[in-house]
Q: What sequence folds into this?
């Protein structure tokens, strides 16, 4: 329950905001979030927390509002319309579709767009190169360097040769990640076994099948797979193989280990970036950021359950969770 | 609500108005609850996006998208007529399979952005282009339904027994109607993708609900027995629906939260349905 | 000319409801003849009509219209030859369409339906002319929804719909059963008048003994899937409705 408290508070603040007269002292930040999802909600909370760190407080010098597009592209378009007419200082797109719905307005110079939690800004047309955004766009990607993660898995399981991944081919984020992961795995002499799922209901079956073929399962920031992480962990536990994740929050749910930022941190970085732009920085000169602060989380109980011993060198650097 | 927002709602309403026409064709005209639409909408968007990326003419892309939608409709029709599947199952199954087909069309990339690509909306004012397109489609569909062929389609939805008595070949006509309907929906998907500047494989979520709501609102606002009026009502209903959504997005002063949006929109649709009918309708005692 | 030879129809085959409805049925109706069929419920009258119209495929036997065997012709195609007026005017007309649209639907029976507007002037004039035969003032209500008409008007309309396009055989299936007595008499008189003017083969099922003797050239009595008795014009003139009813009861 404790982890939902910030969400409730954040939503409370959003709803309690009053429609204020345009006042240059109060900065207007409007967030469009693609869908209500634990990971994305965390990002949004992180943005609010990041802004608060920089001295922007809701109702004092900040007018912040959030809308959810409920995974509906037409709704995302209408939310974008609405936001653009409200003369915001900054619009924020959390998730690919929401960010994309602002592109045409940003290109025309009508709004400044900061995106968050977009894994591949280039293929989403949000950026020209990995670090340079399109005009009036910048943001924070949630792409985590893959090499260090694979190295971590290798050091926990030196005999790891086959790594399985469950992802939704309908999520742009996951598809571009899998492509990059394939390259990284080749370099490390790991065979990547891909298992596509198109909806949450299929995940359990896919996990059972995959767990018979691989030495470990890796779940990156795929919304479909993360939504039914418990089914994946249950299937993996039966075969006594570990489940690794990228989102550190998921370790408490029973994954063995994660090396990455958590979505809250991604949001916080976005918040800092927004504060920077509100403070007068030119959006076009701000480079797209990738989460640099990665943390190592290890779930000792989960490891013990499947009879996996984690090297003490790793334990020494890790935040240890017992659940 | 500002002028700009209203204009955008009108544009979206016109785009989805064509979807509503397609849905009206199946659900109302031939009484076939076709659930293919969630898939064919994306199919249209996907085909258009891929063609535009390859540098084809936007109008050509629209036409090929409609053709692709027609083939999807043919699939549903064949499943229903020749494989004897119930209409609901045939549609659901086709939409289900279309998910994979759509990804295939998009070459495995679930989201294609069209920034810096020529679309029909880079040529001129989007609102006027959409008005023109919607008017052409409206006139074409209304004309088709006013012909002998259209009359036969309508008879299927009203009285199958009499239709057969009059020599209408039900299965053949059902397939033709499904082709036409899904071609319209894919056409509308292709417009949406050009208008919004991207195609996403999840774009079709809720198409059927949007379309049905538009059809129902239209019937309420413009009850009529003339086919030209009732086809126009579909587009009108779609525009009104978009305006309702835009209004619902402005309901924060009620102390409502983001997740209440569907509830508010739904409530407004119900309110429209409960509204006393405009104009006087003569009823026989 | 219509000829049914050795028709056998079994419904619900292989289930406990297995029923041999028509058994070696033979019937011949010449051109211009108007034949009345009577018989108790379940004797197979309607099944015979459905077989003629092509809704039911007989297990054996042949349906022959004007010397050509149409047994295997599907009902949608057979509509060009056989015109059927059903018992319930709500089934025989489309209530959400206008009178004109209903007639246009029927006008194209058995023809290819193309992309030409249906509401042409030419057709409209034809419809007005035919509707005028009814004396119901329907010719001035072409744009009215059929749902707004009374049962008698709708049944009269379905009669016009049945004859508006070309056909060889006209089937009238208890066309007055759903109407009140005075409307029924009116509709029956109209039907008889139309049949007489059209001069084509017509068959009518009725439970009204008075109609069975007043209209048509001959009357056939059906029982258990067969025609068991025939009354020609001479015999009919000596019978009263009560005697005819007694005959049905006897069998």
A:
């Amino acid at each position: 329950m404790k982890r939902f408290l910030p969400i409730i508070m954040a939503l409370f603040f959003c709803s309690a905001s009053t429609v204020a007269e345009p006042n240059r002292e109060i900065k207007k930040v409007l967030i469009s979030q693609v869908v209500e999802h634990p990971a994305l909600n965390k990002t949004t909370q992180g943005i609010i927390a990041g802004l608060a760190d920089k001295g922007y407080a809701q109702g004092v010098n900040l007018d912040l509002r959030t809308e959810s597009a409920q995974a509906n592209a037409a709704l995302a378009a209408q939310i974008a319309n609405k936001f653009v007419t409200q003369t915001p200082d900054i619009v924020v797109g959390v998730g690919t579709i929401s960010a994309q719905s602002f592109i045409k307005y940003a290109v025309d110079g009508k709004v400044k767009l900061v995106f968050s939690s977009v894994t591949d800004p280039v293929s989403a047309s949000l950026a020209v190169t990995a670090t340079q955004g399109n005009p009036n766009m910048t943001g924070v990607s949630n792409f985590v360097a893959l090499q260090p993660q694979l190295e971590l898995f290798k050091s926990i399981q030196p005999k790891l040769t086959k790594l399985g991944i469950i992802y939704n081919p309908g999520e742009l984020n996951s598809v571009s990640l899998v492509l990059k992961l394939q390259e990284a795995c080749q370099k490390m002499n790991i065979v990547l076994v891909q298992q596509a799922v198109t909806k949450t209901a299929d995940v359990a079956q896919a996990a059972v099948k995959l767990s018979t073929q691989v030495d470990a399962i890796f779940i990156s920031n795929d919304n479909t797979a993360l939504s039914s992480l418990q089914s994946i962990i249950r299937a993996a536990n039966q075969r006594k193989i570990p489940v690794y994740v990228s989102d550190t929050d998921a370790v408490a749910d029973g994954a063995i280990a994660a090396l990455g930022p958590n979505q809250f941190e991604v949001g916080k970085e976005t918040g800092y970036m927004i504060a920077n732009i509100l403070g007068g920085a030119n959006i076009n000169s701000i480079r797209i950021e990738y989460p640099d602060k990665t943390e190592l989380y290890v779930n000792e109980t989960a490891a013990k359950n499947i009879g996996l011993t984690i090297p003490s060198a790793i334990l020494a650097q890790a935040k240890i969770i017992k659940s | 609500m500002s002028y700009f927002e209203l204009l955008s709602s009108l544009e979206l309403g016109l785009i989805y108005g064509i979807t509503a026409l397609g849905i009206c064709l199946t659900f109302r005209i031939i009484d076939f609850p076709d659930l293919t639409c969630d898939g064919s909408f994306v199919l249209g968007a996907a085909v258009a996006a891929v063609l535009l990326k390859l540098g084809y003419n936007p109008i050509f892309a629209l036409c090929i998208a409609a053709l692709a939608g027609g083939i999807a409709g043919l699939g549903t029709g064949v499943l229903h007529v020749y494989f004897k599947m119930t209409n609901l199952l045939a549609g659901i199954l086709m939409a289900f399979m279309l998910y994979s087909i759509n990804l295939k069309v998009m070459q495995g990339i679930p989201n294609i952005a069209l920034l810096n690509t020529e679309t029909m909306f880079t040529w001129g004012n989007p609102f006027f282009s959409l008005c023109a397109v919607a008017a052409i489609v409206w006139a074409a569909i209304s004309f088709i339904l006013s012909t002998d062929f259209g009359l036969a389609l309508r008879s299927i939805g009203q009285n199958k027994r009499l239709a057969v008595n009059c020599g209408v070949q039900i299965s053949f006509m059902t397939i033709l109607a499904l082709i036409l309907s899904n071609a319209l929906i894919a056409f509308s998907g292709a417009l949406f993708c050009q208008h919004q500047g991207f195609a996403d494989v999840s774009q079709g979520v809720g198409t059927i609900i949007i379309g049905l709501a538009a059809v129902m609102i239209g019937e309420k606002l413009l009850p009529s027995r003339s086919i030209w009026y009732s086809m126009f009502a579909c587009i009108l209903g779609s525009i009104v629906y978009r305006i309702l959504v835009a209004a619902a997005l402005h309901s924060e002063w009620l102390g409502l939260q983001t997740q209440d949006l569907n509830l508010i929109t739904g409530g407004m649709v119900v309110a429209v349905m409960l509204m006393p009918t405009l104009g006087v309708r003569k009823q026989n005692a | 000319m219509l000829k049914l030879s050795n028709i056998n129809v079994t419904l619900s085959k292989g289930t406990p409801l297995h029923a041999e409805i028509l058994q070696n049925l033979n019937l011949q109706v010449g051109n211009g003849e108007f034949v009345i069929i009577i018989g108790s419920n379940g004797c197979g009258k309607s099944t015979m009509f459905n077989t003629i119209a092509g809704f039911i495929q007989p297990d054996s036997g042949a349906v022959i219209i004007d010397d050509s065997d149409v047994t295997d012709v599907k009902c949608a195609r057979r509509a060009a030859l056989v015109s059927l007026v059903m018992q319930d005017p709500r089934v025989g007309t489309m209530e959400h369409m206008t009178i004109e649209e209903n007639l246009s639907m029927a006008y194209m029976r058995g023809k290819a339906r193309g992309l030409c507007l249906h509401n042409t002037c030419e057709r409209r004039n034809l419809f007005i002319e035919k509707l005028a035969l009814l004396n119901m003032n329907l010719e001035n209500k072409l744009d009215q929804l059929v749902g707004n008409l009374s049962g008698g008007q709708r049944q009269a309309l379905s009669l016009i719909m049945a004859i508006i396009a070309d056909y060889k055989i006209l089937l009238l299936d208890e066309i007055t059963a759903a109407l009140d007595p005075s409307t029924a008499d009116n509709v029956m008189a109209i039907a008889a008048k139309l049949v007489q003017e059209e001069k084509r083969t017509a068959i009518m099922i009725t439970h009204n003994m008075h109609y069975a003797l007043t209209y048509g050239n001959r009357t056939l009595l059906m029982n258990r899937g067969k025609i068991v008795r025939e009354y020609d014009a001479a015999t009919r003139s000596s019978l009263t409705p009560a005697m005819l009813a007694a005959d049905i009861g006897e069998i």
